[in-house]
């Protein structure tokens, strides 16, 4: 489903149908997912549509830029150790409209097939609202349903000398960088530095994926594309791309 | 030769001789021009900060810039009207006392406004309840706070009143809890009802996982079993969820044969099998019987 489309076109996959039709002097964008239907009129010619995975923080409503991934099993990391694990994250599909050469990109629509749930990280009085996702912990890259889940490579680094018991990680959407392969798999690479008993820092790595994903369909990393993000289109202001986990992990 | 502008050099009797009508006009012009410039720059500042910071922070920065500019221009040009800023400081004590007595309320509101901006118990856009008035804070000005009630009315509250009264900030925390009491019949399975309600909450995206929701039997009433449902939700979404989930609970319970009971009272009539029923006759006195008959004739045959 992911890729560039020149109107008119029509695609249908896993219950999602997207089409752009010419209606005389304008174009009509239609999207249906179950009972949820979107119809927009495009008053422009010579544009193209880009469909790619986006940060999973836009549906059903953009109320927080933070994603909390809860691990199905708690991890114990020795002091000073560094390990790499794989997690899954929910996928949201973004539809953008742009000029040729990816100029003047505008978000048209966002949809998702993944479960949506929110949670609070921290205290009721000053905690942070997060989109919630529960993931199994994998030692090698899994192959989930590409329209529902993506793969996150997470490098855990315990900078303290104590054991760290890790059951969750919180990420800021402002630093997220998603990539997708030719067969639709979405991928992110992040790191989590354990600072002490209660605090950690998470961030995303922007460099391209190396050929380490032996079991992943993404091993053909040359075919991988960088996805346009909803948050990267916004003006960032003073929001830092890293997230400081001050209420435990 | 006397020109048309010579009147500007007229020395004013209120000064020590250095202040002319021209310098006073110059002071007024500079102040007016600086107010104009500050307004234009505030407009640009507000526009550039709009997408970068929250509305209340933006408004605070703009106000500090606006009033700061005017104050600096005012103080730096006081010499034009024969007032030295250092002399103003000396005179400030006496003037302050006089002004304080003369304008207690205004100064009180001004200082309260300053503390409201520093302490920030409320921000622009917050939903609050102050002195029995509920609504959205639309502006926090130097001496007053503007609230738009839920009915769309504009209410201006003096800052002194806002600062000294109890303030309930409905959106002060990121999440809040709401509660329902659901009644089911004694004949219904309370465990099944709890399971159905929990399942419904789990499907609602904005019903938070943490703090976790709770559903439990809270009371055994005269005619029903009370279930209490407590859900935490983001402050921006709680009202929508509250109305949506309640109706969904009602529909789901009814679909599964669990009904919300009507008030009922069980009346038990106990009978004694050994007792022989007797015919009931009213004990009527003869005088009353005659009277009733007489009355009957009067009514019918009269």
Automatic annotation (TrEMBL), chain A:
<dbReference type="InterPro" id="IPR007366">
    <property type="entry name" value="DUF432"/>
</dbReference>
<protein>
    <recommendedName>
        <fullName>DUF432 domain-containing protein</fullName>
    </recommendedName>
</protein>
<dbReference type="Pfam" id="PF04254">
    <property type="entry name" value="DUF432"/>
</dbReference>
From TrEMBL, chain B:
<dbReference type="InterPro" id="IPR006685">
    <property type="entry name" value="MscS_channel_2nd"/>
</dbReference>
<dbReference type="GO" id="GO:0005886">
    <property type="term" value="C:plasma membrane"/>
</dbReference>
<dbReference type="Pfam" id="PF00924">
    <property type="entry name" value="MS_channel_2nd"/>
</dbReference>
<keyword id="KW-0812">Transmembrane</keyword>
<dbReference type="Pfam" id="PF21088">
    <property type="entry name" value="MS_channel_1st"/>
</dbReference>
<comment type="similarity">
    <text>Belongs to the MscS (TC 1.A.23) family.</text>
</comment>
<dbReference type="InterPro" id="IPR049278">
    <property type="entry name" value="MS_channel_C"/>
</dbReference>
<dbReference type="InterPro" id="IPR045275">
    <property type="entry name" value="MscS_archaea/bacteria_type"/>
</dbReference>
<feature type="transmembrane region" description="Helical">
    <location>
        <begin position="89"/>
        <end position="118"/>
    </location>
</feature>
<dbReference type="InterPro" id="IPR010920">
    <property type="entry name" value="LSM_dom_sf"/>
</dbReference>
<keyword id="KW-0472">Membrane</keyword>
<keyword id="KW-1133">Transmembrane helix</keyword>
<feature type="domain" description="Mechanosensitive ion channel MscS">
    <location>
        <begin position="105"/>
        <end position="170"/>
    </location>
</feature>
<dbReference type="InterPro" id="IPR011014">
    <property type="entry name" value="MscS_channel_TM-2"/>
</dbReference>
<feature type="domain" description="Mechanosensitive ion channel transmembrane helices 2/3">
    <location>
        <begin position="63"/>
        <end position="104"/>
    </location>
</feature>
<dbReference type="InterPro" id="IPR006686">
    <property type="entry name" value="MscS_channel_CS"/>
</dbReference>
<feature type="transmembrane region" description="Helical">
    <location>
        <begin position="20"/>
        <end position="44"/>
    </location>
</feature>
<feature type="transmembrane region" description="Helical">
    <location>
        <begin position="64"/>
        <end position="83"/>
    </location>
</feature>
<dbReference type="InterPro" id="IPR011066">
    <property type="entry name" value="MscS_channel_C_sf"/>
</dbReference>
<feature type="domain" description="Mechanosensitive ion channel MscS C-terminal">
    <location>
        <begin position="179"/>
        <end position="260"/>
    </location>
</feature>
<dbReference type="InterPro" id="IPR023408">
    <property type="entry name" value="MscS_beta-dom_sf"/>
</dbReference>
<protein>
    <submittedName>
        <fullName>Mechanosensitive ion channel</fullName>
    </submittedName>
</protein>
């Amino acid at each position: 489903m992911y890729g560039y489309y020149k109107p008119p076109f029509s695609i249908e996959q896993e219950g999602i149908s997207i089409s752009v039709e010419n209606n005389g002097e304008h174009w009509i964008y239609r999207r249906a997912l179950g009972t949820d239907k979107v119809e927009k009129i495009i008053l422009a010619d010579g544009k193209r549509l880009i469909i790619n995975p986006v940060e999973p923080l836009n549906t059903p409503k953009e109320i927080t830029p933070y994603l909390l991934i809860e691990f199905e099993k708690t991890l114990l990391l020795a002091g000073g150790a560094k390990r790499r694990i794989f997690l899954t994250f929910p996928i949201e599909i973004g539809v953008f409209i742009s000029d040729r050469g990816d100029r003047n990109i505008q978000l048209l629509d966002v949809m998702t097939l993944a479960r949506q749930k929110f949670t609070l990280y921290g205290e009721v009085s000053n905690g942070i609202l997060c989109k919630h996702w529960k993931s199994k912990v994998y030692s090698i890259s899994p192959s989930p349903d590409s329209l529902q889940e993506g793969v996150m490579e997470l490098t855990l680094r315990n900078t303290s000398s104590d054991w760290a018991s890790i059951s969750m990680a919180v990420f800021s959407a402002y630093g997220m960088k998603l990539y997708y392969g030719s067969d639709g798999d979405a991928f992110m690479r992040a790191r989590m530095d354990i600072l002490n008993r209660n605090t950690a820092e998470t961030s995303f790595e922007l460099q391209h994926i190396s050929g380490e994903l032996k079991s992943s369909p993404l091993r053909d990393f040359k075919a991988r594309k960088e996805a346009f993000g909803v948050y990267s289109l916004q003006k960032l202001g003073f929001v830092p791309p890293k997230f400081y986990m001050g209420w435990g992990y | 030769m006397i020109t048309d502008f010579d009147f500007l050099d007229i020395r004013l009797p209120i000064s020590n001789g250095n202040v002319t009508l021209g310098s006073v006009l110059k002071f007024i012009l500079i102040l007016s021009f600086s107010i104009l410039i500050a307004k234009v720059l505030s407009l640009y500042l507000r526009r550039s900060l709009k997408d970068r910071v929250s509305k209340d922070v933006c408004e605070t920065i703009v106000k500090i810039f606006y009033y700061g500019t005017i104050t600096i221009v005012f103080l730096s040009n006081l010499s034009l009207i024969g007032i030295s800023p250092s002399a103003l400081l000396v005179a400030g004590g006496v003037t302050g006392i006089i002004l304080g007595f003369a304008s207690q309320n205004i100064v009180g509101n001004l200082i309260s406004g300053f503390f409201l901006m520093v302490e920030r118990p409320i921000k622009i856009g917050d939903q609050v309840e102050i002195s029995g008035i509920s609504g959205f804070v639309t502006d926090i000005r130097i001496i007053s706070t503007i609230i738009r009630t839920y009915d769309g009315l504009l209410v201006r509250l003096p800052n002194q009143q806002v600062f000294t009264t109890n303030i309930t900030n409905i959106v002060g925390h990121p999440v809040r809890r709401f509660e329902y009491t659901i009644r089911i019949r004694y004949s219904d399975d309370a465990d099944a009802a709890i399971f159905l309600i929990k399942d419904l909450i789990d499907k609602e995206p904005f019903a938070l996982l943490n703090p976790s929701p709770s559903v439990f039997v809270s009371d055994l009433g005269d005619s029903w079993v009370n279930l209490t449902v407590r859900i935490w939700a983001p402050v921006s979404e709680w009202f929508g969820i509250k109305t949506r989930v309640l109706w969904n609970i009602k529909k789901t319970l009814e679909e599964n044969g669990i009904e919300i009971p009507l008030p009922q009272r069980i009346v038990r009539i106990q009978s004694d099998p050994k007792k022989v029923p007797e015919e009931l006759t009213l004990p009527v006195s003869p005088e009353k019987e005659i009277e009733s008959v007489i009355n009957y004739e009067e009514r019918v045959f009269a």
